[in-house]
């Protein structure tokens, strides 16, 4: 009986990476919650690096034809442990990128579902990663801090008492991951991202205004912002975020003094963003009507200190506010040209 158990656990933890032409190991990667704002772009980025068939997207949403053409896509509900096991085994997965989540504003609208997806989902993936000896990446967020945390700057290690279920679930994920690392040697890796800006539709977070403003202004010439003009929040363009993720996944364990790192590129307010946009979009109007998201933003970091990531694995952002605006104006204009107003 014991022998069988041992044999099973050894078998489960056996990892046989593919090898590329330079003799480098190529990981097989599964992305959960992959049809959201970050997942699709992340798959593109990692497929460019590791090959189309080595990155599997998964979600509970019906994919578009384009997603299916781009590479492997499978259905998996993060709450279905057996379904997850089957995918890891059938596809011989090495790395798991866990994106499934309900974001801050959406989570507040449906707390029981956020508890299930964000907390039970995390229990499933961390056990899965332990059982099959996977490297596991879980994103955290500036929302993992709260009103008691220092806000300008917010260091890597400080008080974390968030007031949203999203933040609570992310602190839980950070702590659980660190615990599994210390207790079982699990290769858990986590980056705390600020608001991530891309031309794809955002998932219902508090920093979404910085995406919506480009879509609305370029379509209609005006935007009503749900945050006050001077609300400062840390942000990064999706290219910087995905480069951080992929560089961090490649760092050898001996360089890492932590399993959880802050990363960021910049901080700005809605007013500063609209001033930067005025250089590229001359005529538009912005008005302000703060809603419940203002309370969330007021409890979050204003400036994020990512010096530990810079020190330990040479993280360096490349996209500043002007680059970000230029990229967004170009990408959103292209989307409008394809999809219409
Ligand atoms: N976008 C940001 O600005 C940002 C910032 C910090 C951290 N993050 C984190 O990055 C991750 C991805 O963020 P995103 O912006 O792509 O989110 P998103 O809301 O756009 O996507 C989340 C995906 O999870 C899926 N999902 C929901 N319930 C599921 C279930 N039961 N089983 C499987 N999948 C399910 C959804 O269908 C959705 O496609 C999240 O964990 C988020 O907390 C995002």
What is the global morphology? globular
Give the SSE string: HEEEHEHEHEHHEEHEEHEEHEEHEHHH
Quote the average pLDDT.
94
Structural class: alpha/beta
The profile of the biggest β sheet is: 8 strands, parallel
Task: Give the key terms.
single chain, 341 residues, alpha/beta, eight-stranded parallel β-sheet, three-stranded mixed β-sheet, 13 helices, 15 strands, globular, binds nicotinamide-adenine-dinucleotide
Summarize the structure.
The chain is α/β, with parallel strands linked by helices. The site of nicotinamide-adenine-dinucleotide has 26 residues, from strand 10.
Write the layout of secondary structure elements.
Blueprint: H1 2-13, E1 18-19, E2 25-26, E3 29-32, H2 39-50, E4 55-59, H3 65-70, E5 73-75, H4 81-90, E6 95-98, H5 104-109, H6 111-131, E7 135-137, E8 140-141, H7 165-184, E9 188-193, E10 195-197, H8 209-220, E11 222-225, E12 233-237, H9 238-250, E13 260-262, E14 266-268, H10 270-278, E15 285-288, H11 293-298, H12 307-313, H13 321-339
Parallel strand pairs: 3-4, 3-6, 4-5, 6-7, 7-9, 8-9, 9-13, 10-12, 11-15
Antiparallel strand pairs: 1-2, 12-14
Helix pairs in contact: 2-9, 6-7, 8-13
Nicotinamide-adenine-dinucleotide (NAD) binds next to strand 10.
């Amino acid at each position: 009986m014991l022998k069988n158990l041992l044999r099973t656990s050894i078998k489960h933890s056996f990892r046989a990476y593919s090898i590329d032409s330079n003799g480098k190991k190529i990981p097989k990667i599964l992305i959960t919650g992959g049809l959201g704002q970050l997942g699709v772009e992340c798959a593109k980025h990692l497929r460019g690096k590791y090959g189309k068939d080595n990155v599997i997207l998964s979600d509970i949403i019906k994919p578009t034809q384009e997603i299916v053409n781009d590479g492997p896509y499978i259905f998996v509900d993060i709450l279905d442990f057996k379904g997850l096991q089957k995918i890891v085994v059938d596809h011989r997965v090495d790395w798991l990128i866990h994106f499934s989540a309900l974001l801050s504003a959406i989570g507040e609208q449906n707390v029981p579902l956020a508890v299930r997806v964000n907390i039970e989902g995390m229990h499933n993936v961390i056990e899965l990663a332990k059982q099959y000896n996977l490297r596991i990446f879980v994103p955290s967020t500036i929302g993992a801090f709260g009103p008691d945390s220092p806000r300008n700057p917010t260091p890597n290690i400080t008080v974390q008492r968030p007031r949203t279920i999203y933040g609570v679930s992310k602190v839980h994920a950070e702590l659980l991951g660190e615990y599994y690392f210390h207790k079982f040697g699990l290769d858990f890796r986590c980056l705390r991202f600020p608001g991530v800006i891309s031309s794809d539709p955002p998932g219902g977070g508090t920093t979404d205004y910085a995406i919506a403003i480009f879509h609305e202004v370029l379509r209609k010439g005006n935007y009503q912002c749900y945050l006050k003009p001077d609300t400062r929040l840390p942000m990064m363009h999706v290219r910087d975020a995905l480069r951080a993720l992929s560089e961090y996944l490649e760092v050898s364990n001996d360089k890492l003094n932590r399993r959880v790192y802050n990363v960021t590129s910049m901080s700005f307010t809605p007013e500063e963003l609209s001033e930067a946009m005025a250089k590229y979009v001359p005529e538009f109007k912005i008005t302000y009507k703060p809603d419940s998201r203002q309370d969330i933003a007021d409890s979050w970091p204003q400036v994020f200190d990512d010096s530990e990531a810079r020190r330990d694995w040479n993280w360096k952002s490349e996209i500043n506010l002007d680059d970000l605006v230029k990229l967004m104006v170009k990408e959103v204009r292209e989307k409008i040209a394809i999809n219409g107003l």
